[in-house]
Amino acid sequence: MNTAPHTAPHTEPRRPLVDRFGRVHTDLRVSLTDRCNLRCTYCMPAEGLDWLARDSVLGDDEVVRLVRIAVERLGVRSVRLTGGEPLLRRGVVGLVGRLAALGVELSLTTNGIGLARTAAQLREAGLRRVNVSLDTLRPERFAALTRRDRIDDVFAGLAAAKAAGLDPVKINAVPVRGVNEDEIVPLVEFAVGHGYRMRFIESMPLDAQGAWERDAMVTADEILARLGERFDLVPVGRHGNAPAEEWRIAGTQAVVGVIASVTRPFCGGCDRVRLTADGQLRNCLFATEESDLRALLRGGADDDRIEAAWRTSIAGKGPGHAVNSAGFVRPERPMSAIGG
Ligand code: SAM
Ligand code: SF4
How far apart are CA 78 and CA 71, in angstroms? Predict the structure, then answer.
């Protein structure tokens, strides 16, 4: 469906995407859809969540154009595709191929359900790494937590990702009190045993139903205490601006990560910018304002204008999120429509 005025490759020297605190933004998260084939309880209600209108979702040409501008003009070097469930997007393998051709390091966050049939094609198309969400190893618990009986598809997807040569294959789990925090150690054992890399994410107040409770969040300290009962952990620190703090299990090469967005915010090193499936630029996961790149795209704006809008958005980025302050205001968009 495009649309975009075609422009020759940009030959000006890139100016990095720097905000007023000196943070350089090189990592772009692109949501390909807000739809999902699971209904994880910490993310979505069982039903009643409205999807984005189909005609508001960017087409492939529009996504490719925005990512090209980010890469050629703004110095973006890595792109992570997410959602909703990105593998639900029709033609995702072709889109991955077009984005990989822009020369970015391309990765994907998925619930793993569609991976068994797509992993090899995605790898072939240029995908490098994958994160698969898996919060429990128990089928009944998985069915209760995601409201769908699909754990075998996730296991098959993980195996296919590894067999396809996606490297690393990481597993993301969100521990929730009284739900799955007793599986923190078993998940690590499973991951280590299969050659996957385990990461735990503190739950954040970004669920669509607004039911997040601080007390139900399993904190980084608690996660580490549980791990410490079973493993000797050697701190590795953080890779560059990566959100995960990492620990190596002593005597092995296995590494466990913890993303503690709430109790140990890492906003000071944030290098991320997000593009929603409907073409809204967000300078923070918790932003309450967005920049409408879709309107610019569809209004015929040239690349200079879109680049300028992108820079203006980043110039307005705040120092950090306010989840821990009394004045915190949740963004209207839930995680599933932002792109986690
Ligand atoms: N559907 C894909 C998946 O589940 O991996 C990609 C989108 S999902 C929104 C991306 C990541 O966000 C997943 O690892 C998921 O567990 C995490 N997530 C979803 N809701 C969350 C919440 N309220 N707090 C913390 N992480 C959350
Ligand atoms: Fe879907 Fe991912 Fe949200 Fe689960 S966390 S409901 S898989 S978008």
Answer: 9
Segments making up each domain of the chain, as ranges: 27-338
48 Cα–ligand 2 center, Å = 15
Q: Which residues have a Cβ under 8 Å from the Cβ of 206 and sit 6 or more positions away?
A: 212, 285, 286, 330, 331, 334, 335, 338, 340
Helix axes 184-194, 220-230, angle to 10 degrees: 60
Is the CB of residue 180 below 6 angstroms from any atom belonging to ligand 2? Answer: no
Q: Rounded to the nearest whole angstrom, what is the distance from the C-alpha of residue 340 to the centroid of ligand 1?
A: 5
pTM: 0.95
Domain 27-338 sits in CATH at 3.20.20.70
How many residues belong to the chain? 340
Is the shortest distance between the CB of 219 and ligand 2 below 6 Å?
no
- pLDDT greater than 90 at residue 306: yes
* pLDDT tens figures, 16-35: 999 999 999 999 999 999 99
User: How far is 241 from 103, CA to CA, in rounded Å?
Assistant: 21
Q: Which residues line ligand 1 (CB under 6 A)?
A: 36, 42-43, 82-83, 85, 109-111, 133, 172, 174, 201, 203-204, 206-207, 335-336, 340
Q: Which atom of ligand 2 is nearest to the CA of 146?
A: 4
Q: What is the pLDDT of residues 207-262, one digit of tens each?
A: 999 889 999 999 999 999 999 999 999 999 888 788 899 999 999 999 999 999 89
